[in-house]
Amino acid sequence: MESTTSKRPGYAPLILVAAIGFYAIPVGIIGNTSGIFLQPVMDQFGWSRTTASLYMTIAPWVAAVCTPFAGKILARSNPRWALTISCLVYGLATIATAFATQAWEWHLYGVVYGVTSAFFMYLAAPTLINAWYKHGAGTALGIAGAALSITAAIASPIGQSLISAHGWQYARLVFGIVATVVSTVVTLIFVRPAPGSDAAGATATATTTTTESGATFSQARSSMALYLVILVAGIFCLGASFFQQIPSFASTGSLGAEAGAVAVSIVMVGGVVGKFLLGWMTDHIGAPITGVFASLCGVVGILLAFLSGSNVVLFYVGVAIFGIAFAALTVVSPMFVRQGFGTAHYTEIYSWVSSGIFVFSGIAPLLYARIYDATKSFTAAFILVIVLYAIGAVLSPFIVKLARRSRRAVTA
C-alpha cells in the first residue's frame, strides 16, 4: 500500500521529478539525439536515409496502437511499475542497438521503442501532472519539457564528440547505459498513483472525483474539438520532428556538420525558454493564444533557417526561434485538452491525442526522408513545415471554445 504522504498535495513537486526521470531523461538523451546517429550509420552500412530512419516510423506507429492500452494500465494500476519497466526495457533495447549491424535489428528496436514509449513519451507526464497539480499544470509541464530540452542540449554535443572520437557505436552504448540507469532509478523512487486513481485507494477516489469536472469521453469523441486537437498536435509533431533533419541539412550544405550539431543544442535551448514561456502563457492567457504564438514562431524560425544560406548567425537565430515552436507539442497540446475538456476523463481523452501524435510522429521521418531521397534537397520539406505551422496558427483559436461546448452539454 502506498504511503499517505504520497497522496498529499505537497507530493506534487516530486511527481514533477518523476516525470523528469521517465520522460526527460530517456527522450532527451536518446530520442532527441537520434539525428546525430543517422549519417554515421548510413555511411558505415551504405543505407539510404529512408532505411536508416525507418525505425523512427515503426516506433510511433506501434506506440499509436499501444497507447489506448497504456492509458488503461496507467489509470487502473500503479503507474510506478509500468513506467519503471518501460524505462528499463527501452534503455536495454537502446544499448543493444550499439551492436546492431543489420537493418532488421533497428526495425525490431523500433517495435520495442514503440511499445515502451506508449507509456512514457506523451501520455504519462501530462496525465500525472494534471492529476497532481490543481493549479499551474501548464508551468509544471513546461518545467518537465524544459528539463528534456536541457538534457538534449547537453547530450547532443557530447554525443557528437563521442562519435568523432570513438565512433557511433561507443556513443550509443554510453548514452544507452546512462539513460537506462538514471531513468529507471528515478522512476522507481518517485512515481506514485494519481490522487483518485484506482491504485490510490477508494477513499481518495471519493474525495477527488467530487472536485473534477469536464466532458465525458463519449462527449469529447463526438466533438470536432478533439479532432482539431489531434490535427494541431500532429502539426506540432511534424514541425518538432523536422529538427532531426537539421544536422543533415547543415552537414550537406555550406554550414557544415559542426554547425548542425550546435543547431540541435540551440533548438533545445530555445525549447527550454519556450517551454517555460508557453507553460506560463497557457496558465495565464490560455492555450488558444499560446498555440497561435507558438505556431508563428515555427513559421518565422524555419523561414529564417531556410533563407540563411551560409550565414551561420542567421541560421542559429532561426533555429532558436524554432525552438519555441518545438516546445508546443508537449506543453500546448495537453493544455488544449485540460482547458477545453476538463480533467474528469483526461487520461481517456488525451490517450486519443497521444495516439494521433504517434501516428504523425511515424509519418514525419519517413516523409522527410522520402522528400530528400526524391529531390536530393531539403527545400520542399522546409516549405511544407512552414505551411503546416501557418495552418496551426489558424486552427488554434477555435479548439478550446468548441471543446467547452461539450463540457456544457455534460453539465446541462
Topology pattern, helix = H, strand = E: HHHHHHHHHHHHHHHHHHHH
Strand content: under 5%
CATH C-level class is: Mainly Alpha
What is the CATH superfamily classification?
MFS general substrate transporter like domains
Uncertain runs: 1-7, 201-210
Question: What kind of sheet is the major sheet?
Answer: none
At CATH level 2, the architecture is: Up-down Bundle
Q: Which range best describes the helical content: under 10%, 10-25%, 25-40%, 40-55%, 55-70% or over 70%?
A: over 70%
The global form is: globular
> Would you tell me the structural class of the helices and strands?
mainly alpha
Termini separation:
39 Å
Provide a short characterization of the protein structure:
The protein has 412 residues and is mostly helical. The chain is built from 20 helices and no strands.
Salient structural properties:
disordered N terminus, 20 helices, 412 residues, Growth Hormone, Chain: A
Notes on the structure:
The chain is globular. The longest helix is centred in the middle third of the chain and has 30 residues, at 137-166. It has 412 residues and is an all-alpha fold. It has one domain (11-193, 215-411): MFS general substrate transporter like domains (Growth Hormone, Chain: A). The chain contains 20 helices and no strands. Helix content is 80%, strand content 0%. α12 (224-241) runs antiparallel to α20 (399-411).
